Amino acid sequence: MDADRRTLINLAVFIFVALTCGFLGVWVNTFVPNQESLMDSIGAGIWIAIPLITVLLLRTFAGDGWSDSGLKPGFSKNLKWYGFAALVFPVVISIALFIGKTMNWVDTACFNLAAYMPVFGSVIGFEWIKNIFEESVWRGYLTAKLDRITRNEWLIYVIVGLVWGLWHLPYYLVFLDEHYLAMFFPYGRYAVALYAVLVICVWTIMFTELFLLTRSLWVVVILHSVEDALNPLISEQFVTVQADKTLIVSPTFGVIPLTLYLLTGLYLRKQRLRIRPSEKNFG
């Protein structure tokens, strides 16, 4: 079988599995009542694990191989991008919160760096491990395989963003605790589920470009882990955003940080094409 045709078939299998496994998990949970936490439920485990298992099977037994998985760290040539990945979310969130505080939209009275850093430190290790698995799926497989069959990065952004975003639907609609969700987005499950797809599509440009720039899974693992480890700013109420200003300055959902992430992604694209002009698409 032609290698590109095999890649297309395997991608179709992966995308189908990714878009359905969460709802399979929700269905499985209906047979296992009284689970203490839906995020710790069997169904959530299915949602999280099945995409990774599918990638392992496709790479090992279906001809996809491991050469483009990004497992080599490439420290010598990627050192500045590791630093970039570690800093981009803290810098953007700091800018958004500074603007919010200046406008009296954000209350930072409870923020204390000495108190926050142990919380960050206690979370980052778990997030690192979790995101090795997650980034092996979204960047290490889906992005890498799409890059094999097309040089149109805009198409890659759209496909990865939509699949990654829609994979999260069961998370926002079912698995995530409603009280926890309301701390970040006080407009209900259905609104956040739809809006989160847009957020993830914007993030995808930045994640994709860092991966394509470095060809290293570990850079985006750092990027993703730092982002996740900053969530306690809101969930532990170190910072409080006025509900009616969530769509403006919220670290996760605000238009200000999203605009900065979009600009960052486009900057990274420009840098990649400057370094490797042969990767310019036909557009």
UniProtKB/TrEMBL annotation:
UniProt GO molecular function: endopeptidase activity
Residues annotated as signal peptide: none
Entry keyword annotation includes DNA damage: no
InterPro entries: MmRce1-like, Rce1/LyrA-like_dom
Keyword Protease: yes
Highest taxon of source: Bacteria
Record's keyword terms, sorted: Hydrolase, Membrane, Protease, Transmembrane, Transmembrane helix
Transmembrane segments: 7-29, 41-58, 79-99, 111-133, 154-174, 180-203, 246-268
Record-linked Pfam families: Rce1-like
Domain CAAX prenyl protease 2/Lysostaphin resistance protein A-like span(s) in chain numbering: 129-229
An individual GO BP term: proteolysis
Protein name per its UniProtKB record: CAAX amino terminal protease self- immunity
